[in-house]
Every structure is written in structure tokens, then in C-alpha cells.
Design brief:
The complex is a heterodimer of chains A (about 500) and B (about 350). Chain A is α/β, with parallel strands linked by helices. Chain A has two domains: about 180 residues, Rossmann fold; about 240 residues, Rossmann fold, CATH 3.40.50.300. Chain A contains 18 helices and 22 strands. In chain A, a hairpin with a 3-residue loop joins strand 13 and strand 14. The longest helix of chain A has 16 residues. The relative contact order of chain A is 0.11. By secondary structure, chain B is an all-alpha fold. Chain B has one domain: ABC transporter involved in vitamin B12 uptake, BtuC. Chain B contains 16 helices and four strands. In chain B, the strands form two sheets. In chain B, strands 1-4 form a two-stranded antiparallel sheet. A two-stranded antiparallel ribbon of chain B has the order 2-3. In chain B, a hairpin with a 2-residue loop joins strand 2 and strand 3. Chain B is globular, with a radius of gyration of 23 Å. Classes of the chains: A alpha/beta (about 500), B mainly alpha (about 350).
Chain lengths: ~500, ~350
């Protein structure tokens, strides 16, 4: 059998940080190839190279035995490589039928033949065994149905290599089953499926071949039958991270931050946690699970249906940002682009944005601002090439440090952090870990939402594991090994 | 790898010393508002060559005082648009406040009374816009377009079909000069300077940038976004009231379907956009707005001096707006590519 896509020695770095180091990958028609790895292992970069979003710095890419240079998204599409990203990309106002045939509507003269549109869309869905009314608006579909419609669209366009990025994230068990059934249908139709997922049991159930990436390199690539859960976990977690766990002073006895019975719809159900002063408690779950809702609820952006929040014993009302800030709770978002920084504003101004408001300053002088920001820049290791550029011109790691500096220097009574090392390189990651150690050593209770077991092992004193909105386990970090934690977090299904 | 050896080669990595002035043409193009200044200079030089009267003190003062009313409105709009807001009703607010204060003055009320009523009325109209924008999710564009149309109608109702003359009341504000500079121009320049100072040196002004740049971040950072927006809409209303008084004092009367209204607003929006203030918020400068105002004023004056029909007026405003908007976008793209 010949590979439809063959990658050899693919290397890619971003601003000095190597994201992929000589990756080999073969994709065969009629095979589900699972791509696994921890956050930042290089899965998305690899996928982006394959689908033409990024060009590899070195290495070759062959499609049907033909070497491709400077592959663009458009060209990759034409060659039959398409990807369904985590964020669904349907035109929500249009019908399912229109979405499936978008860009290729059957016409007579210049007029759209609506009957043909519906029929072709029905055929496309039926071929994959999908039962969705083609006249519904895309916006009214569930996330699982949207994924199915996208898959049908790509297959109809002649997709022979289909990349699915965490297609079952945030889905109920039933919907996830439907997606997995669809993946098997695709395989039987002769499509080469690249399947990215964090759930080990799911991958073992659906994949024919597994490739595990770690730190941008392939650790294992083997048929699924030759691997078991334990071997997979070992391959994913692998060697020690650069940053090692230091001795922190023992947490104090008094509880600094407590959350009780927090519930919002199906996303988060009856979530309870107590964090002592000087303690770091991690909430670990797959990306997009309950821990990702905590930011909106704790920061006051959204009001939960039920629940209670206390900082230093005082109740904090939900649903109001000023109340959350006044309690001394500092919430650091994991989405710095949308909720963390003002991109067009300068580095210094972003760094001091919150502190200057808390201090009720009225006047703004650049000189004074630079003087106040300088020690923060220094202690948080923010490096800018020249002076005081717009924060959007900084690297991801530096932006993340600006975000942390902005919040952690406002004398927090308690801190909530969401994926604080999201999208930063190894060096910046180690720096950020040290910053959080310092924060806890100062006696601040820290709640950490994470989807990375490595980070939890490195930082936390205790870990709460969530899955499908529920708490499934709670451990002292000394009472659990990294492999056990990964297995609980990735394989743990709610009872 | 061959690229590496090239840059490592002696003499290539060090750029040659540049003994001459640092202001090469390339640098000039990177200055803020470079395109706008270039267009302005071009129009000025062309008109000055074609017409002898253009470059006289008298004509220049004339141009500047003609844009004074627009300048007061544009200053407020620059601040509001920087914060991601929009107000299409300022020109109509001017029509209403001018009509109401004309009526008060014509009825023999004291000037101070009319002034206070005009400012309060303008502020109230702005606040209503602000309340609707902040407490419903309707886009400011839609809200203020609706109130603009509504207020234009209210102005017609106040006039009841007839022009209201105020005789010589407030004549000094509209027509007198200090050291050759009209009062109206002084007011306009003061408002522009005050706005520039607020935007650059106060936390209130920086809040506007933060709200326009990313409203979520602004709110999460402890900025009272609702209060700030209400203040900004109220402020544009106050400035509209002031502009109404200025217009009334210059014309000496208020007439139905006069110079104020939506058409005045469109000229103001044009000036602000020409000045490079972002419609999406997060970016804006008073200097750019001032340049935009002067450019529109100069073009109108040039058409007048060169004996074009006044029907070319809207054509010129439209053309200048289009050229400037394209120039701004190209400038932005240049800066963007230079950064990465």
C-alpha cells in the first residue's frame, strides 16, 4: 500500500523555539492515524504544516509520491488535504445544504438551483450515514452535528486526507459515539484520517496507528494493536521537564479561597474546592472541560446557576467584575488575546492597566508609567526589542509574562490562573513556573486550571481532576505519580 | 545556511555609515499622518498657485473659522470613536439646541439662560444615546442614526416652518476677533487642545483607548466601562450643545433644514476618519482630526476660489474621504509589515 502523504524530517521553529524537530509521518488511505502528545508537543504545528498553513523550515512533504514545495492552504485543499479545526467554521446563518455546497452551488444560468443543492447535500450526508435535515440553519446544530456537516463538506470536495482536531472535545458521550462512528465510516470509504485527541481510551478504540509527539519530535509510531494504555502514557509524558519542583514553605492552615457547589448547565456541575493560603491547587481536565469555565465564573463575567465563592472567609457575589476585583481575587485568563491584553496599547500600559485603575490614578504620564513599569518588567523578565512597543508585537511568552505581571503585582488576596503557560516556549514556561512558586511562597492561595498534567505535577500541592463537568478525583500531589495522574485525567470517565 | 554565511561576511552585516541628515524620504513616509500632510500640502500649493487670494491672512482665518463648528464636534467624536463608540446624532443635536436657544433668545430670555439650556439639552440628548447604547446591545451606529433622524424632525417642529432670528444677541461670539483671530476659532482650538490633553495625559483618556482596544479586557481590569461610555456620550452631547451655540451666533438665526443636521454630521465623521481614527476603536489622534478638518476646509475653499459650482462640494468631500481612507490603510499596512 502506498502512502497518500509522506513527511520526512519536517522541522519548524517559531522565533528560535523549535516546534517540530525532524518529524516523519506516513498516512495511508483507509487508516485512522491518531496523533497524540501533551500540550505544546507540536501536534497542531505538524497539522498546520501538512495542511499548508505553515511551511516547514526543513524536510520534505510528498503527496501521492510527488514532492511538494511551498504548499499553500489552497493547494493542499486541491490535493485533497483538508482539516476540521477545533473551532467550527460554518456560515451559521446559512442552511446545512448551502454550507455543504458552499463555493460550488449548482446553478442554471446565474440562478441557484435550490432543489439540486438540497439533493446533493442529502446525498453527501447519506453517503456518510449522517442523518441531519439539510434545510436546518447551521447555527441551530449541536457542536457534534456541526462537526459532521464540516466532515461531509470536506469529503464532498474530494478530501482524501482529513485532519480532525479534537473532534470530541466538549461533547457528551452519546455525541462522541456518533463522531467516532463517522470516523470509522470515513476509514471504510478509503479516507486517510488524522485524529487528534487527548482521550486515551477513545484513541485506542478508534485508531489503527498511533504517533506520539513530545517536544516536537516523534517518540513512538506504531500500529495501535502493539501499544497499551500504559506504554502510551509513558511515551506522552516521557522525560522530566526543564523546570523542576522546588521546596516551597508548607501551606498555612487557614483557607484563603473556597468555592462551593459551583454549577452552570452541563459544563460544570457541583464543583467544590478549598485552597489554603500558600497552597497551589490545580484543576486538571481535558482542554475545554469544566476548568475552562472557571475563569468566566470567578472573574464575574458570567453568573453561575448555583454556588458560593469566599475569599479570606468573605462571601463574594457572582456576576459582577468589580465585586470580584474588590475581594482581592485576581483571575488571569488563558485567552490573553481575547480577554487578557489590549493589543494596540503599549507594553507598559498593558502592564499597569489594572494597577493604575486600582490606585485610582487620574493623570497618565509616559515617563512616570515607564518608571513604575520598569521593576515589573525586570522581575517578570519581559524582554522587548526596542523601548515600549505595542504589546501585540511581543512574542507569546513575553505577552504571557506581561499578563501575569499585570495581575500578580496588584497585591492579590487570592489568585486564579488558567493555563498560565499556554503557547509559550520551554524557557518562558520555566520562568512562569518560578513566578507562581514565588506567589504561593508569599502566602497567596492559588487555584490553577490546567489541561497539562506535567504542569500540575510541577506546580500543584493538590490536584482536582474533572471530566465532563464533574469532579472525578482529588489527590495530594505526593500521593500520585505522573503516569497515574495522566491516566486518571485522560481516561477518567464520570461514573 | 548560505544566508548565514552572507550576513557573517565582513562589511555586509554593518550598514554603511550615514553622514547625512536622518530624514530620508523613507523616514518621512513613516511619520504619522504623512499621507494626509502630503495631500494637504499638494492641495494648498496647487490652490495658492492658481488663486492669489488663497494665501492671504484673511482667507486662511476665514477657512479656519468656517471649520470651527465642525472642529468642536470632531473633537468629541474622536474621543468617542477611540473608545469604540459612534455618534451620528451630533449634527442633529446641533440643529435642535440651536433652534431651542434661538427660540429662547427671540422670546427675550437672558443670554446666559439660553447658553445653559443649550448645553444641558445637548448633554441630555447625548446621555440618552449613551443609555440606550450601554443598556441595550443595539449597535451605536443604529441607535444614533435613529436619534439623528428623530432630532432632525424635532428641530423642524421647533421651527414650525419659520426662521428664528436672534438679532444681534451673541453677535460678538460669532463675529468678533481678538488680535485678528475669531472667537469661534479660539473656542474650537481650545476644545481640540483640551481633548488632545485628555487623551494623552489622563487615565480617563487612556480608558477610552483600552475600551476601544478590547472592551472585555478593560472591564476585567477594573475600568467602569458603563460609566465611561455614559460620560463619553454625555460629553459629545455637551460639545454638540456648544457647537449649536457657535453656529447660531455665527449665522444670527436658526432656520428649518439649515446647515446643521445629518449632513453636518457626515462632514464631521469624514474629518475624523480622514484623520486616521479607527472606526473599530482603540486608535485615534486629535492632530489627525485637526488635519482632516483643515483639509476638508481647504478643499471647500479652493473650489470656491477657483469658481467651481457649489454642487461640487459633496463630490470633493467624498473624494477626499476616499483618498484619505485608502492612504491611511496603506500607511497602516506599511507599519504592520515593518514591525514583523
Amino acid at each position: 500500500m502506498t502512502a497518500v502523504l509522506r513527511a520526512r524530517g519536517v522541522t519548524k521553529s517559531f522565533g528560535g523555539a523549535a516546534a517540530l524537530k525532524g518529524v516523519d509521518l506516513d498516512l495511508y488511505p483507509g487508516e485512522v492515524h491518531a496523533l497524540m502528545g501533551m500540550n505544546g508537543a507540536g501536534k497542531s504545528t505538524l497539522v498546520q504544516v501538512l495542511s499548508g498553513v505553515h511551511q516547514a523550515d526543513a524536510g520534505t512533504l510528498e503527496i501521492d509520491g510527488q514532492e511538494q514545495h511551498g504548499l499553500s492552504v489552497r493547494r493542499a485543499r486541491r490535493l485533497g488535504i483538508s482539516s476540521v479545526p477545533q473551532r467550527r467554521e460554518l456560515a451559521m446563518g446559512l442552511s446545512v445544504a448551502e454550507n455543504i455546497l458552499l463555493g460550488d452551488l449548482p446553478t442554471r444560468g446565474r440562478a441557484v438551483r435550490w432543489k439540486a443543492v438540497r439533493e446533493e447535500a442529502r446525498t453527501a450526508l447519506a453517503a456518510l450515514g449522517i442523518a441531519i435535515d439539510v434545510e436546518r440553519a447551521a447555527g441551530s446544530l449541536t457542536v457534534a452535528e456541526q462537526t459532521m456537516v464540516e466532515v461531509a463538506r470536506e469529503v464532498r470536495r474530494g478530501g482524501r486526507v482529513l485532519i480532525l482536531d479534537e473532534p470530541t472535545a466538549c461533547l457528551s458521550a452519546k455525541d462522541a459515539d456518533r463522531i467516532r462512528a463517522l470516523v470509522r465510516t470515513l476509514r471504510d470509504e478509503g479516507v486517510a484520517v488524522v485524529y487528534i485527541s487527548h482521550y486515551i481510551d477513545e484513541v485506542m478504540a478508534v485508531a489503527d496507528r498511533l504517533t506520539v509527539l513530545r517536544d516536537g519530535a516523534v517518540v513512538t509510531s506504531a500500529p495501535a494493536a502493539e501499544l497499551d494504555d500504559a506504554a502510551l502514557v509513558r511515551a506522552m509524558v516521557g522525560r522530566d521537564v526543564v523546570s523542576t519542583r522546588p521546596e516551597r514553605p508548607a501551606p498555612k492552615d487557614e483557607v484563603g479561597l473556597s468555592v462551593r457547589g459551583l454549577s452552570q448547565g452541563r459544563a460544570i456541575r457541583d464543583f467544590t474546592v478549598e485552597v489554603r493560603r500558600g497552597e497551589i491547587v490545580a484543576v486538571l481536565g481535558p482542554a475545554g472541560d469544566a476548568q475552562s469555565r472557571l475563569f468566566d465564573l470567578l472573574s464575574g463575567r458570567q453568573r453561575p446557576e448555583r454556588g458560593e465563592l469566599r475569599v479570606d472567609g468573605r462571601a463574594v457575589p457572582f456576576g459582577r467584575v468589580p465585586a470580584s476585583l474588590a475581594s482581592g481575587l485576581r483571575c488571569v485568563t488563558g485567552d490573553r488575546r481575547a480577554l487578557g491584553l489590549v493589543p494596540g496599547m503599549s507594553l507598559d500600559e498593558n502592564l499597569m492597566l489594572a494597577e493604575d485603575r486600582f490606585a485610582r490614578r487620574r493623570l497618565h504620564r509616559r515617563g512616570g508609567l515607564a518608571r513604575r513599569a520598569a521593576p515589573l518588567r525586570h522581575s517578570y523578565g519581559v524582554r522587548a526589542l526596542a523601548g515600549n512597543p505595542p504589546v501585540s508585537a511581543l512574542s507569546g511568552g513575553n505577552q504571557q509574562k506581561v499578563l501575569l505581571g499585570k495581575w500578580l503585582e496588584t497585591s492579590p488576596a487570592a489568585c486564579f490562573l488558567e493555563d498560565p503557560t499556554n503557547g509559550v516556549d520551554i524557557a518562558a514556561m520555566a520562568d512562569i513556573h518560578t513566578l507562581l512558586d514565588d506567589l504561593a511562597s508569599r502566602g497567596v492561595p492559588v487555584l490553577l486550571a490546567s489541561s497539562s498534567a506535567e504542569e500540575v505535577m510541577r506546580l500543584a500541592d493538590r490536584v482536582v481532576v474533572v471530566s465532563a463537568g464533574r469532579t472525578v478525583a482529588e489527590h495530594d500531589i505526593t500521593a500520585i505519580t505522573r503516569d497515574e495522574l495522566v491516566a486518571t485525567a485522560l481516561g477518567g470517565q464520570p461514573q | 545556511m548560505s544566508v548565514k554565511t552572507l550576513t557573517d561576511a565582513p562589511g555586509v552585516s554593518d550598514p554603511p555609515e550615514e553622514p547625512r541628515s536622518r530624514f530620508t524620504p523613507g523616514r518621512v513616509r513613516d511619520l504619522p499622518h504623512a499621507g494626509l500632510v502630503a495631500v494637504l500640502v499638494l492641495v494648498v500649493v496647487f490652490t495658492a498657485v492658481q488663486s492669489e487670494t488663497f494665501a492671504t491672512d484673511r482667507n486662511i482665518v476665514n477657512i479656519l473659522s468656517q471649520v470651527s463648528v465642525n472642529a468642536v464636534l470632531a473633537a468629541g467624536l474622536t474621543l468617542l470613536m477611540t473608545a469604540g463608540g459612534m455618534d451620528f446624532s451630533m449634527g442633529s443635536n446641533v440643529a435642535v439646541t440651536a433652534a431651542v436657544s434661538a427660540k429662547l433668545l427671540a422670546d427675550g430670555r437672558p443670554t446666559g439662560y439660553a447658553v445653559v439650556v443649550a448645553l444641558l439639552l445637548g448633554t441630555a440628548i447625548g446621555l440618552v444615546n449613551g443609555l440606550v447604547v450601554t443598556f441595550t446591545k443595539v449597535a451605536p451606529f443604529v441607535v444614533t442614526l435613529a436619534s439623528a433622524t428623530l432630532l432632525d424632525g424635532v428641530a423642524l417642529l421647533v421651527h414650525d416652518g419659520s426662521t428664528i432670528s436672534i438679532g444681534t444677541r451673541m453677535f460678538a461670539l460669532g463675529n468678533d476677533k481678538v488680535l485678528g483671530v475669531p472667537y469661534l476659532l479660539i473656542v474650537a482650538v481650545l476644545v481640540l487642545i483640551a481633548t488632545a490633553l485628555v487623551m494623552r495625559f489622563t487615565v480617563f483618556g487612556r480608558d477610552a483607548f483600552a475600551i476601544g482596544g478590547n472592551e472585555h479586557v478593560a472591564r476585567l481590569s477594573g475600568i467602569d466601562v458603563t460609566a465611561r461610555k455614559l460620560t463619553l456620550y454625555g460629553l459629545t452631547g455637551t460639545l454638540s450643545g456648544l457647537a449649536g451655540l457657535m453656529l447660531l451666533s455665527r449665522l444670527g438665526s436658526s432656520s428649518p433644514g439649515g446647515t446643521a443636521g445629518l449632513s453636518l454630521q457626515l462632514a464631521v465623521v469624514a474629518a475624523v476618519v480622514i484623520g486616521g481614527t479607527s472606526l473599530a476603536g482603540g486608535h485615534g489622534t486629535v492632530i489627525g482630526t485637526a488635519l482632516g478638518l483643515v483639509l476638508l476646509g481647504v478643499v471647500a475653499n479652493a473650489l470656491n476660489l477657483l469658481d467651481f459650482s457649489s454642487n461640487y462640494q459633496p463630490v470633493s468631500v467624498g473624494a477626499v474621504l476616499l483618498v484619505a481612507a485608502v492612504a491611511n490603510e496603506m500607511h497602516k499596512a506599511r507599519q504592520g509589515s515593518a514591525r514583523h
